[in-house]
């Protein structure tokens, strides 16, 4: 918290990004929403030691430790939207809880695809979940971040932050325009455990249904918080064991032999 240089950089990024503002682009029936969060991320990348060297390695390490704290502020803001819509959220309670089982689809789709593209144990970290902050922490605790699983989860985490917001904004608009799904169900589906992706998706839906703006934000925020709560246990007890099993099956199918047994080194 004493790294005043880091706080100054963040403040400047926030001001610049907010001055740029959000941009909406029509893409067929859908809408691509570019949010200030995306601008801040892209500008921040160019400030790292790899490019302009405005931030050093210590700054980057300090920033990483503050991610969870800063996301708490965002989720507190969303919490203020849930209260007025609480009766509707309670009514949709079972749907909000059971939707977490849909995230297991990333395992069945991602693991075989990653293995056949040439990834090995990186596929477990990359495809066991949507790879947001709780999942990064889980992989770090179970496997360590220096191993292939840690590289896999961080790769998807970064790609999700950069590309995921755009993808979610577009896909929500297309489903709203072409599918019979209700906007409330799409808002619930937006809450996969990523504040940025949920914000982009709900933002697109809100631009199409401005009369439902507050309710859509409440459903998305409630779904996102539930995904953060039960999603971690779902990953620990179900997705990770399933990923290990499916990885072995996919590996044997491609290479004709079982992979080497993972041995966790004691520190």
From TrEMBL:
User: TM spans, by residue?
Assistant: 32-52, 64-81, 101-119, 155-178, 184-205, 217-240
| InterPro entries on file | DUF3100 (IPR021450)
Keywords from the UniProt entry:
Membrane, Transmembrane, Transmembrane helix
Indicate whether Manganese appears among the record's keywords: no
**The keyword Membrane is annotated on this UniProt entry:** yes
Signal sequence span is none
Protein name, please?
A: DUF3100 domain-containing protein
Protein's organism = Clostridium brassicae
């Amino acid at each position: 918290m004493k790294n005043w240089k880091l706080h100054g950089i963040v403040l400047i990024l926030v001001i610049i990004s907010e001055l740029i503002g959000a941009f909406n682009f029509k893409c067929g029936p859908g809408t691509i929403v570019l949010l200030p969060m995306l601008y801040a991320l892209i500008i921040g990348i160019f400030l790292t030691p790899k490019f302009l060297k405005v931030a050093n390695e210590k700054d980057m390490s300090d920033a990483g430790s503050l991610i969870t704290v800063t996301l708490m502020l965002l989720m507190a803001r969303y919490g203020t939207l849930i209260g007025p819509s609480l009766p509707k959220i309670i009514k949709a309670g079972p749907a909000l809880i059971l939707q977490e089982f849909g995230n297991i689809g990333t395992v069945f789709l991602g693991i075989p695809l990653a293995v056949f593209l040439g990834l090995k144990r990186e596929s477990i970290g990359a495809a066991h979940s949507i790879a947001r902050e709780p999942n990064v922490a889980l992989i770090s605790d179970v496997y360590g971040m220096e191993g292939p699983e840690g590289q896999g989860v961080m790769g998807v985490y970064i790609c999700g932050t950069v590309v995921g917001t755009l993808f979610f904004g577009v896909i929500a608009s297309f489903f709203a325009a072409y599918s019979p799904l209700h906007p409330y169900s799409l808002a619930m589906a937006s809450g996969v455990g990523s504040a940025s992706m949920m914000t982009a998706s709900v933002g697109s839906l809100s631009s199409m249904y401005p009369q439902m703006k507050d309710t859509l934000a409440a459903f998305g925020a409630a779904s996102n918080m539930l995904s953060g709560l039960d999603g971690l246990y779902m990953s620990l007890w179900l997705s990770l064991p399933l990923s290990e099993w499916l990885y072995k099956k996919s590996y044997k199918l491609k290479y004709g032999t079982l992979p080497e047994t993972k041995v966790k080194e004691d520190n």
